[in-house]
Amino acid sequence: MATKTRTIEVELSTSGLDRSGKPQRVPLVTNDGGVSIGIPEPLALEPALDGEHMLINLGPQHPATHGVLRLVLELDGETVVRCIPHIGYLHCGFEKTGEYRQYNQIIPWTDREDYLNAPGNNVAMALGAERLFGITITERCKVLRVIACELSRIMSHLVWLGTTSIDIGAYTPFLWSFHQRELIYQLLEAWTGARLTTSLTRVGGLMADIPDGWTDNARSFLAGFDKVLDDVEKLLTNNGIWVGRTVGLGVMSPEEAINWGLSGSMLRASGVSYDVRKDFPYLDYETYDFEVPVGVNGDVYDRYLVRVEEMRQSARIVRQALDRLPDGPINVDDARVILPSKTKATSGMESMIHHFKQVMEGPRPPVGEAYVAVESPRGEKGYYMVSDGTAKPVRWRIRPPSFLNLSAIPKMVEGHLLSDVIAINASIDVVLGEIDR
Amino acid sequence: MAITVKRVSRHVEQTSYVKATLQGMASTLKQMFEPKVTIQYPEQRWELSPRWRGTHRMLTKEDGKARCVACGLCPSVCPSNCIKLVPGEDENGNRYPLVFEIDEFRCIFCGYCQEVCPEDAIHVGQHYENSEYSREGHVYDLERLMAQTHPVSTLWDATDPRGE
Predict the structure, then answer these.
(1) Distance from A359 to chain B by nearest Cα, in Å?
(2) How far apart are alpha carbons A193 and A96 in whole angstroms?
(3) Using a CB-CB distance cutoff of 8 angstroms, which residues of chain A are in contact with residue B6?
(4) Between B2, B20, B110, which is nearest A241 by CB?
(5) For A327-348, how does the pLDDT look when each residue is reduced to its tens digit (9 = 90+)?
């Protein structure tokens, strides 16, 4: 194949504006002169047609693909012969951008990659940076982070439940679950000032403590939540349409699930009891009393059951965390990473100098690397960062659980009907922001 | 400890769609007598949390000038590089912003500018409806930032000690 050269212009993300006030643009690859790197045209990935097979595109603009996922399906009548997922339509360059940001500045970025689990990502990022810095966070901060993680797990599963039921043809659970999600949004809004992009954590602590009366609001939400979950289950679990549309679809055996690298609810629905919170506890999860739901058949129906049960268990954890919430500071007493409080910074010269140095130069971890894995609603979410002793990571990498879960879709949809592809794809709970990063 | 989820053991053919449909409709009908949870936007407005991080606002001193002293903390901490600041100095040696522009279109509303501001000058506030017909319309200059009247976020402020 002849190699063609393409010119790519990339906007430098950090250098900002040039002298005329326009964003600076630097050609990475040039056709004549300068650096010239040949980028071959992508190989043709579409399957070759033979006989009566038909080729269709599902997505990237199809609402049932839950984002900009494109599935190229080879159909024999209505049966799927082959499926090739195409990703990359939502590539935002988070990892590369992170290399030009201080650790605290990356935290708003983590809101946006797995956008259904923003508080959980903030916590994971902060945990990774704290491991790099060698910081132990305070007890109150730990408990508050657990509350945030579990609320965001419930929130994410509610979105999954609503959208999946709408894909399969049930409209009511969507409205009910989105109402419950709205109530969690109100809690997060009162706490962080934002609903979706929370930016909740800072290295060594949290952006803010919970406001007065927040725990009572959280408790009253939990009191109503279980009832709504019961109602949704009443609509779906024994519903003949729901059972007929989900049982026996996309079956993954435990061995296959492990070999395909699945994690989270996908893996547990196949009968493998693996949960990062249980097996590699962080934030003192080993001291909370909760169960890990495990499925039997590993089909779409089991994934539904596992996720509903996970929501109940998460609600249990939030209740325990609210009960044990200790008083005390939310930030560590470590001047290397924590900004002085606003009153202090504006009243004393020393604090003001500290404040300026902290913001302009940023906290600097020692040379080293850190990997931290947390249980996100989609599975084992990892953040890996390498430090060379400066305020910005040399490399910041995300291990996206839904990327690995999605990789099994060609295997799962093979031999099923086209309409079942929608159900199977929905059961993976893909978040394309996280897959394409 | 792992628990196994309960599965219904009956076969698909044994289930009746009619029964399921009626059950679903009964559940849905019950909701008609529950309190309403929706609001009729824009006639009805949602009350924002006092910590809401929305459109920026520049607070002013008693003499009507901006509080900003052009220290340069907010443009350096901004993760999305949406603040443009050109500092100037008056005849008394006091610094003030010659140009202070925030591109609300580029802004990600993380609130870091307010968190680091040592003069309580730039704030994010309780306002979210900032549609414009052009991208240029989203660039708020100093006058426009000072002309905003919405309440500012109580985060990182002495009025909300728990959020500081």
Answers:
(1) 6
(2) 28
(3) 305
(4) B20
(5) 888 888 888 888 877 777 778 8
User: What tens digit of pLDDT does each residue of A238-273 get?
Assistant: 777 888 888 888 888 888 888 988 998 889 888 888
Question: What's the pTM?
Answer: 0.84
Span of A225-239, A278-292, A333-347, B38-52 with lowest mean pLDDT:
A333-347
Whether residue A207 and residue B155 make contact (CB cut-off 8 A), yes or no, is: yes
Q: To the nearest whole angstrom, how far is the Cα of A361 from the nearest Cα of chain B?
A: 9
Tokens representing A46 are 């579409």
* For residue A8, pLDDT beyond 50: no
In chain B, residues with a C-beta closer than 8 Å to the C-beta of A186 are 49
Element (H, E) at B102: strand B95-103
| A174-188, B17-31, B97-111: least confidently modelled range | B17-31
Q: Which residues of B touch A108 (CB under 8 A)?
A: 79-80, 108, 110, 112
In angstroms, the separation between the Cα of residue B26 and the nearest Cα of chain A is 10
Give me the pLDDT at residue A158, please.
93
Asked if B153 contacts B50 with a C-beta cutoff of 8 angstroms, the reply is yes
Domain B56-147, second-level architecture: 2-Layer Sandwich (3.30)
Alpha-carbon span A351 to A331, nearest angstrom: 16
Closest of A309, A306, A328 to residue A317, by C-alpha: A309
A184 contacts A221 by C-beta, under 8 angstroms: yes
Per CB-CB distance under 8 Å, the chain A contacts of B119 are: 346
pLDDT band at A384 (very low <50, low <70, confident <90, very high): very high
Name residues whose C-beta falls within 8 Å of residue B109's C-beta, 6 or more positions apart in sequence: A194, A197, B53, B54, B124
From CA A59, how far away is CA A86, in angstroms rounded? Answer: 9
- The C-alpha of A81 sits at a distance from chain B's nearest C-alpha, in angstroms, of 25
What is the Cα–Cα distance from A267 to A260, expressed in whole angstroms?
10
pLDDT of residue A185: 92
What residues of B are in contact with residue A94 (Cβ under 8 Å)? Answer: none
Give the count of alpha carbons within 13 A of A336, CB side only. 14
Give me chain A's average pLDDT, please.
83
Helix (H) / strand (E) element for A224: namely helix A214-236
Q: CATH 1.10.645.10 in chain A, residues?
A: 107-336+363-436
The CA distance from A250 to A131, in Å, is 38
- Residue A340 has what pLDDT? 77
To the nearest 10°, report the CA torsion of A344, A349, A136, A116.
Answer: 60
- Higher pLDDT: A13 or A218? It is A218
Q: Do A172 and B27 touch (CB under 8 A)?
A: yes
The answer to whether A240 contacts B19, with C-beta atoms less than 8 Å apart, is: yes
> pLDDT of A313-327, one tens digit each?
999 999 999 999 998
Inter-chain CB proximity B52 and A191 less than 8 Å: no
Shortest CA gap A411–chain B (Å): 24
Class for the domain spanning A107-336+363-436: mainly alpha
Burial class of residue A246 (count of CB atoms within 10 Å of its CB; 0-12, 13-18, 19+)? buried
> In this predicted structure, what is the pLDDT of residue A64?
79
Average pLDDT over residues B155-159: 77
Spell out which residues of chain B touch residue A329, defining contact as CB-CB under 8 Å: none
